[in-house]
Write a structure and sequence with these properties.
The protein is an alpha+beta fold. The protein is built from 2 helices and 5 strands, in the order αβββαββ. Strands 1-2-3-5-4 form a 5-stranded antiparallel β-sheet, covered by helices on one side. Bound molecules: adenosine monophosphate.
């Protein structure tokens, strides 16, 4: 089972987070357990559990979080490169059941991922 939706609590300001960006569609904050010198999570305000739950109506918000990721990458000094990750469901490594885009940078990444 995926854990409870702690990201909704961050959206609702019930628990703190180091928020780096927000607008009417999304919120971005530092990951509590960073896997790289820069590790930010970008989440839609809309409650979407997983990537597999996306509908056609979500295309705009999906594009938007990628646009925000590109701008944050510039602001956070990741001109050399960065990695974007969306884990989907337990087999894909997802632990929090609210769609989120990982923006990772500041070190070199290997391939294939673990
Ligand atoms: P995933 O495994 O793709 O579902 O990613 C969930 C991410 O959320 C992990 O990288 C966690 O470290 C991160 N995380 C969990 N709880 C918090 C929190 N309260 N604040 C910030 N990041 C969190």
């Amino acid at each position: 089972m995926l854990a409870t939706n702690i990201f909704l609590k961050i959206i609702n300001r019930e628990i703190p987070a180091k928020i780096v960006y927000e607008d009417e569609h999304c919120l971005a904050f530092h990951d509590i357990s960073p896997q790289a010198p820069v590790h930010v999570l970008i989440i839609p305000r809309k409650e979407i559990r997983t990537h597999a739950d996306l509908t056609e109506a979500d295309k705009a918000v999906l594009g938007h979080i990628h646009w925000v990721a590109k701008q944050l990458a510039e602001q956070l000094g990741l001109a050399e490169g960065y990695r974007l990750v969306i884990n989907c469901n337990e087999a894909g490594g997802q632990s929090v059941p609210h769609l989120h885009l990982h923006l990772l940078g500041g070190r070199k990444f290997g391939w294939p991922p673990g």
